[in-house]
């Protein structure tokens, strides 16, 4: 397992590299989607939180109990994932989820 060094970049959001004080100054809707990581924790993310490409599919090798085996660009449509990640989807994908739930024919 690789150790993440203090100050090492682990995520780039919207093309901007920000540190803790910069994140603290962001609006809540953006700040709350950052990646808080305690020492010793593994850095992971589920593609369902931000991926909306219907042509995307890949085998998952995370080996967790909740693994769905194949990750797709339409996993956000799954009710179980919408429930599990409620409040954590990327802003634009949450808008898509809301529109789809309001207008299921889309």
Written description of the protein model:
It is a single chain. The protein is mainly alpha-helical and 106 residues long. The protein folds into two domains: 1-43, no CATH class; 45-106, no CATH class. The protein is 25% helix and 6% strand. The protein has four helices and two strands, in the order ααββαα. The protein has helices at 20-24, 28-31, 79-84, 91-102; strands at 57-59, 70-72. A two-stranded antiparallel ribbon has the order 1-2. It starts with 19 loop residues before the first helix and ends with a helix. The mean pLDDT is 82.
**Largest β-sheet summary:** 2 strands, antiparallel
The dominant shape is globular
Mean pLDDT: 82
Query: How many domains is the backbone divided into?
Result: 2
Unreliable spans are none
Query: Into which percentage range does the β-strand content fall?
Result: 5-15%
Give the helix proportion (percent range): 25-40%
Question: Spatial order of the strands in the main sheet?
Answer: 1-2
Based on secondary structure, the structural category is mainly alpha
Give the gist of this structure.
This protein is mainly alpha-helical and 106 residues long. It is 25% helix and 6% strand.
Describe the structure using short key phrases.
single chain, 106 residues, 2 domains, mainly alpha, two-stranded antiparallel ribbon, 25% helix, 4 helices
Write the layout of secondary structure elements.
Elements: H1 20-24, H2 28-31, E1 57-59, E2 70-72, H3 79-84, H4 91-102
Antiparallel strand pairs: 1-2
């Amino acid at each position: 397992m690789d150790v993440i060094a203090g100050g090492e970049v682990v995520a780039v959001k919207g093309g901007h590299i920000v540190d803790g004080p910069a994140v603290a100054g962001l609006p809540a809707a953006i700040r709350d989607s950052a990646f808080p990581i305690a020492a010793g924790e593994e850095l992971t993310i589920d593609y369902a939180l931000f991926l909306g490409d219907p042509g995307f599919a890949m085998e998952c090798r995370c080996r967790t109990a909740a693994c769905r085996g194949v990750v797709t660009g339409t996993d956000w449509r799954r009710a179980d994932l919408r429930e599990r990640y409620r409040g954590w989807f990327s802003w634009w994908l949450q808008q898509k989820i809301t529109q789809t739930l309001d207008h299921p024919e889309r």
